[in-house]
């Protein structure tokens, strides 16, 4: 993380804290001085030269016209405070600049203080009522002492606003992730959102990270310490080894907590340790320019316990999903074993379905659900007698009815299952022989009344059935199969899905070549 430098941090060893190094994680407060008189710039900067607010020094930027101030604000959106002269290139240049800062730049956070040597040019009451400013001062009343007070209160207000905004952003991430919390990506989003809220509440620097250490549970693979998430928006850190993305001192602190199973508090930083019942160790690392209080420690400890519960539930849910995946693959393999010519049919159909799904911009979770549901499409054939399943000639009308009954039999096998994955598989089993024009079976559904995954699997299944050998037929030439799909778009198949399949012919043929035998 670029703003997490080892120079800004201190290391506590056996309770002895070294002399604090200058904090630079959050950087200095940026103050923009806007005045057409260079002397005003010099005097203001001189009077505030040694001021620190909440442990952070001041940094000054300069503009000499209202127009120039807008350009500086555009380049430096994190300016905390503007000391703005009213009369510069025009009588109301400062007021016009404030309007543009608030409106055109949409910056409502920066604290804007108007300074004027000619108060009659812009009466205070009118200015306060009409313009979104935070204070109005005459230059003659701003002594050094009053200037210090003004800067301190203005920057404190700015810090409060930024904290509220971060808290809101963090809450939005939590809410966004809560709908699908047990996806791995959503769990990371959830943890990041709560970290962001926590950092805002404690006025911590934007360098908070959560690390998963070497697992100790018997069922969990051991491995290096990895970053799970960070309060910043730096996704490049997620999943990386801590020694590759964090300063050496930070790595040492985190590993100390992981090795001892204890939290550690130093001057301007702390680590909080927590462990799930499955054995996975985690550490939250946080820094601040101000001292953390005992109540801060308790708040973070509570956060860690609650996130630990979320991770625990996620682990249990993943085990359930893993069991369901194994069940799907086992049942699919049984169907293939009963008919040797169907070898790799399930894999190919799943891969063809995924090609369509990816081009529909389905999420990773939806793609996985589609893949496994498509793999189950013929599960009902388990109960079809071998003499019919492997018959080399045409079916009689009675045999055809029995063969088509594999749909109902497959639905019955999955009927008592309540997981979203197996419910999705049941829908695919029951609808992959329906037709876009309503002439399919078993329910004669049509158009988009047929579930999307069933429509996708229909295209994939027919392509594979026609392009591979069966006991009752030789394989069709691939070009002929593509022609068949093209001719039956809008009648047998969803035309949009056929168009996607045809447009991705190279990807389809890669699957065909890889799994064709």
Could you characterize what this model shows?
This protein is an alpha/beta fold and 517 residues long. It has three domains: 27-160, 3-Layer(aba) Sandwich (Rossmann fold); 166-315, GAF domain (Beta-Lactamase); 318-515, Hypothetical protein af1432, CATH 1.10.3210.10. Helix content is 50%, strand content 12%. It has helices at residues 38-47, 66-75, 93-102, 124-130, 144-178, 184-201, 242-245, 248-260, 294-338, 345-359, 364-375, 386-389, 397-404, 406-414, 420-431, 452-467, 478-487, 495-503, 505-515, and strands spanning 12-13, 16-17, 29-34, 52-53, 56-63, 81-85, 111-116, 135-138, 209-212, 226-230, 264-266, 269-275, 281-287. A six-stranded mixed sheet has the order 4-5-3-6-7-8, sandwiched between helices. Strands 10-9-13-12-11 form a five-stranded antiparallel sheet, sandwiched between helices. Strand 4 (52-53) and strand 5 form a beta hairpin. Helix 5 packs antiparallel against helix 6 (184-201), helix 10 runs antiparallel to helix 11 (364-375) and helix 14 (406-414) packs antiparallel against helix 15 (420-431). The longest helix is centred in the middle third of the chain and has 45 residues, at 294-338. The chain starts with 11 loop residues before the first strand and ends with a helix.
């Amino acid at each position: 993380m670029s703003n997490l430098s080892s120079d800004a941090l201190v290391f506590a060893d056996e309770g002895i804290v070294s002399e604090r190094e200058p904090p630079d994680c959050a950087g200095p407060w940026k103050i923009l001085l806007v005045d057409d008189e260079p002397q005003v710039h010099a005097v203001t900067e001189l009077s505030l030269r040694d001021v620190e607010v909440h442990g952070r020094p001041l940094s000054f930027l300069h503009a000499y016209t209202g127009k120039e101030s807008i350009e500086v604000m555009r380049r430096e959106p994190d300016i905390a405070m503007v000391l703005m002269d009213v009369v510069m290139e025009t009588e109301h240049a400062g007021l016009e600049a404030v309007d543009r800062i608030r409106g055109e730049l949409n910056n409502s956070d920066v604290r804007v203080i108007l300074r004027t040597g000619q108060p009659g040019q812009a009466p205070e009451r009118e200015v306060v009522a009409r313009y979104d400013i935070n204070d109005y001062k005459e230059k003659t009343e701003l002594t050094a002492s009053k200037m210090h007070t003004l800067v301190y209160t203005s920057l404190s207000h700015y810090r409060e606003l930024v904290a509220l905004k971060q808290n809101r952003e963090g809450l939005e991430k939590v809410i966004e992730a809560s709908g699908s919390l047990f996806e791995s990506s959503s769990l990371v989003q959830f943890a990041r959102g709560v970290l962001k809220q926590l950092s805002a509440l404690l006025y911590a620097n934007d360098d908070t990270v959560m690390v998963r250490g070497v697992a100790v549970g018997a069922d969990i693979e051991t491995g290096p310490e990895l970053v799970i998430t960070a309060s910043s928006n730096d996704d490049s850190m997620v999943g990386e080894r801590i020694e590759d993305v964090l300063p050496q001192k930070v790595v040492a602190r985190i590993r100390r907590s992981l090795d001892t199973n204890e939290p550690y508090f130093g001057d301007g930083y702390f680590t909080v340790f927590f462990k799930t019942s499955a054995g996975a160790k985690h550490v939250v690392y946080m820094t601040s320019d101000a001292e953390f209080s005992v109540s801060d420690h308790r708040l973070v400890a509570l956060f860690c316990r609650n996130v630990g519960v979320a991770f625990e539930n996620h682990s249990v849910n993943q085990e359930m999903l893993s069991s369901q995946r194994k069940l799907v693959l086992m049942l699919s393999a049984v169907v293939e074993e009963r008919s040797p010519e169907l070898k790799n049919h399930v894999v190919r159909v799943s891969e063809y379905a995924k090609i369509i799904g990816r081009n529909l911009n389905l999420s990773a979770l939806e793609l996985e659900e589609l893949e496994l549901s498509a793999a189950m499409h013929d599960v009902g054939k388990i109960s079809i007698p071998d003499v019919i399943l492997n018959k080399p000639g045409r079916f009689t009308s009675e045999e055809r009815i029995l063969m088509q009954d594999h749909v109902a039999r497959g639905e019955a096998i999955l009927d008592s299952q309540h997981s979203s994955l197996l419910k999705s598989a049941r829908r695919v089993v029951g609808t992959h022989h329906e037709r876009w024009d309503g002439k399919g079976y078993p329910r004669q559904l049509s158009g988009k009344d047929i579930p999307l995954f069933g429509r996708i699997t229909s295209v994939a299944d027919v392509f594979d059935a026609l392009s591979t050998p069966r006991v009752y037929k030789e394989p069709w030439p691939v070009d002929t199969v593509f022609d068949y799909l093209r001719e039956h778009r809008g009648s047998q198949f969803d035309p949009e899905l056929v168009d996607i399949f045809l447009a991705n012919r190279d990807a389809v043929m890669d699957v065909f070549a890889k799994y064709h035998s």
